[in-house]
């Protein structure tokens, strides 16, 4: 969607979907506290990205992959006794760089929009695990 206004309706539906699903799965017996916090953080990133889109074309792709990177780094520092997150960390860093490069290469975003998306996704995802888990 090259025009920022083309994103309004799809982003509103995506936000509503995440809010409804977050409400429906809250308190399910299979939901661990970490899963619950992560899903609320993901929903927050989606909703905030939607809100920002009304004024500025922030990169939702960058927010998503940087959010995953934030989760991996936060879980790696929270659960230091396990060293099983090395390869997911390498994959998250590589994917974040690749997606950011692709968005620039395709002229889908300006650098500031990608940096904004990365900061939004990373800060909310990392912060939610560090602060609430």
Structure description:
The protein has 133 residues and is mostly helical. It has helices at 8-25, 33-53, 60-78, 86-105, 111-132. Helix 2 (33-53) packs antiparallel against helix 5, helix 3 runs antiparallel to helix 4 and helix 3 runs parallel beside helix 5. The protein is flat and about 45 Å long.
The pLDDT mean sits at 94
The backbone outline, from C-alpha atoms, is flat
End-to-end CA span: 36 Å
Q: Number of helix segments?
A: 5
Main structural class: mainly alpha
Assembly context of the chains: single chain
Please trace the helix and strand order, writing H or E for each element: HHHHH
Tell me how many strands there are. 0
**What are the segments in which pLDDT stays under 50 over at least 5 consecutive residues?**
none
Query: How is the main sheet built?
Result: none
Helix content: over 70%
- How large a portion of the residues is in β-strands, by DSSP E? under 5%
Computed CA radius of gyration, to the nearest angstrom: 15 Å
């Amino acid at each position: 969607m090259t025009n920022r206004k083309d994103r309004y309706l799809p982003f509103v539906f995506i936000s509503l979907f995440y809010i409804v699903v977050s409400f429906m799965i809250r308190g399910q017996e299979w939901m661990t506290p970490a899963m619950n916090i992560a899903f609320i953080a993901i929903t927050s990133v989606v909703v905030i990205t939607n809100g920002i889109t009304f004024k500025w074309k922030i990169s939702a792709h960058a927010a998503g992959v940087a959010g995953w990177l934030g989760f991996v780094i936060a879980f790696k520092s929270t659960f230091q006794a396990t060293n099983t997150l090395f390869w997911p960390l390498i994959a998250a860093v590589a994917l974040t760089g690749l997606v950011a490069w692709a968005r620039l290469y395709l002229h889908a975003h300006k650098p500031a929009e990608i940096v904004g998306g990365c900061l939004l996704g990373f800060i909310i995802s990392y912060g939610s695990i560090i602060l609430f888990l």
